[in-house]
Amino acid sequence: MAKEKTFILGVGAPKAGTSWLYEYIRRSPKANLGQLKEYQLWNMVFNKNSKKRHDLLNKPQLQFNSDDFLRWTMLTRKSSYEIYFNSIINSGYKITGDISPQYALLSTTGYNYIKQQLEACGFVVKVIYLIRDPIERLWSNIRMERNLYQTIDKNISDSDAVKLFHKDDRWKFDSKYDRVIPKLRDAFEKKNLYIGVYEEMFTIDKVHELSEFIGIDYDPFMIKKKVNSSKKTEELDTDVIKAVRKFYNETYEFCYSNFPQTTYLWNN
Description:
The chain is α/β, with parallel strands linked by helices. 50% of the residues lie in helices and 9% in strands. The chain has 15 helices and four strands. It has helices at residues 18-26, 42-46, 51-58, 66-76, 80-90, 108-119, 134-148, 158-165, 169-172, 177-187, 198-201, 204-214, 238-247, 249-258, 262-265; strands at 6-10, 95-99, 124-131, 193-197. It has a four-stranded parallel sheet with strand order 2-1-3-4, sandwiched between helices. Helix 6 packs parallel to helix 10.
């Protein structure tokens, strides 16, 4: 009888609980997610012009660290991605996976390809996509960028930063759940697709539900555990909230229709 093996494909969204999800799965004795927190392979495979792909392929191999080498191998050696994760299962685990928020940018064709490649190795592919109020998600992303990478002027307020960046191509797609979810629904069966709403994730019932979907035991330790969270030091101006809400109107309306709990959990 073939060994049951599950592959968890996490596709985002950034600042919507993906780091918490990674830690939650990683704590289970049934799971091993391998060497990297984010493999970020498929965004390089399907986007030949990506900066990450260009930088990796043009970096001298003598300067590679172990993470670079693993990504380079997966990118340049056919089936090495599937072989790598299959080797993890063969070492005594039931669950492995790749949680890379960049995968939300993929097409339905891309998702189908990943699914086919992994299923050919005997994996059951389960997809997790976490969504968060677009205003809160963007605001959290901006706080992180400013604190960690100094890419945003520390002298401007959060309100000014959100107002300045909420229409920027670099930021806006991460909150366009209405574009991502239909592609996921086209590529994956309902039973193998879990869409979680960040604002209700950290409850006993929801963590039980997520655990059952993944195939791991419920871990109460992680209920109140914060991972990569950034503290708010001010509130957003009302006019900024209204501007972002208007800009993401299609996303809000889609989520209100598909996930009715967001009508009271999110800004409206």
